[in-house]
Write a structure and sequence with these properties.
The chain has 328 residues and is α/β, with parallel strands linked by helices. The protein folds into two domains: 174 residues, Peroxisomal Thiolase, Chain A, domain 1 (3-Layer(aba) Sandwich); 147 residues, Thiolase/Chalcone synthase (Peroxisomal Thiolase, Chain A, domain 1, 3-Layer(aba) Sandwich), CATH 3.40.47.10. The chain contains eleven helices and 13 strands. Helix 3 crosses helix 4 and helix 8 packs parallel to helix 9. The radius of gyration is 19 Å and the shape is globular.
């Protein structure tokens, strides 16, 4: 039977501090009812502490994953990390995590696809396993979004939170694992969702910092419309290619961007809400961490052979969907 890349473990890490909607009411012109009705979010976790970057959360997620799966650092062949908020421009988050978790020497690299990052990362990692190049790969999704959010901008500060999660991918010849994937992108979306300064086009200066150009900018209307259409389209393509129906799918695992986007995607696929993983109310949008966090939250409900559809949409724009059969 064909070799597939199967998820054999998942673990997450959440910072202790909870930023509630009531707290945000005191920071910007907003209120709990407005936030919940438009996003579904009630609170989000924030990583506090000087000098603490995304790697703090990623390292804890990986350490927990190794312990849970009874794997030694020496048994891991590759680390792939999805993030938009690495500790530094370089080295890669994957390299930092590998060093801090006793895996120095093995290859590691980052993937930058914003909120679709984890989907891109798991699909990329799967190809290394399918080819026979590697047998055991850790895929990380982690972001400290609070580091690039302006807490005076009510259009973005209500949405995002911090978290890290990681999965173990291993070779499987029993039919479990990633069966199919579809991905797309459109750089024209840059106009509506981006960070103006800090890249090679506009390096950070005191003037740009004073203007707040180091923070996320989002034009919500166009982003919402495109997210709904592209996530729904991606799910439909994967379902059609694999002859899946709403009845045959056990779980939809959508990126947790906005409750209305999640509901629209599920409705388009004909899926009842009981089959949709949703935890946005607790964590907000944690960018690359949302999908593995859902898998972590629902881990005990999953059964071998369950059919899962993962779907995401991210800034840039990026989007995609994957079909996998759960392995444990």
């Amino acid at each position: 039977m064909k070799t597939l890349a199967a998820i054999t473990g998942v673990h997450g890490y959440l910072p202790e501090f909870r930023l509630t909607n009531n707290m945000l009411e005191k920071m910007v012109d907003t209120n709990n009812e407005w936030i919940v009705s438009r996003t579904g979010i009630k609170e989000r976790r924030i990583l506090k502490g000087e000098g603490k970057g995304t790697s703090v959360m990623a390292v804890e997620a990986v350490k927990g994953l190794l312990k849970k799966t009874n794997c030694t650092p020496e048994s891991v062949d590759l680390i792939v990390a999805a993030t938009t908020t690495n500790d530094m421009r370089f080295p890669a988050l994957a390299n930092i995590v590998g060093h801090k978790c006793g895996m120095s020497g093995i290859p590691g690299f980052d993937i930058s696809a914003a909120c679709s990052g984890f989907l891109y990362a798991i699909n990329t990692a799967a190809k290394f396993i399918e080819s026979g190049a590697y047998k055991k790969i850790i895929v990380i999704g982690a972001d400290k979004m609070s580091s690039i959010i302006n807490y005076k901008d009510r259009s973005t500060c209500i949405i995002f939170g911090d978290a890290g999660a990681a999965i173990m991918l291993e070779a499987n010849t029993e039919g479990f694992g990633l069966v199919d994937c579809y991905m797309g992108s459109d750089g024209g979306g840059e106009e509506f969702l981006h960070i103006k300064a800090g890249g090679s086009r506009n390096p950070l200066t005191a003037e740009l910092i004073d203007k707040g150009h180091q923070y996320v900018f989002q034009d919500g209307g166009p982003v919402f419309k495109t997210a709904v259409s592209k996530m729904a389209e991606s799910v439909k393509i994967v379902m059609d290619r694999n002859k899946l129906t709403a009845d045959s799918i056990n779980w939809l695992v959508p990126h947790q961007a906005n409750k209305r986007i999640i509901d629209a995607t599920a409705k388009f696929a004909g899926l009842d809400s009981s089959k949709v993983m949703v935890n946005i109310e607790k964590y907000g949008n944690t960018t690359a961490a949302t999908i593995p966090l859902c898998l972590w939250d629902w881990e005990e409900k999953l059964k071998p052979g369950d059919d899962l559809i993962l779907a995401a949409f991210g800034g840039g724009y990026t989007w995609g969907a994957s079909y996998l059969k759960w392995a444990y």
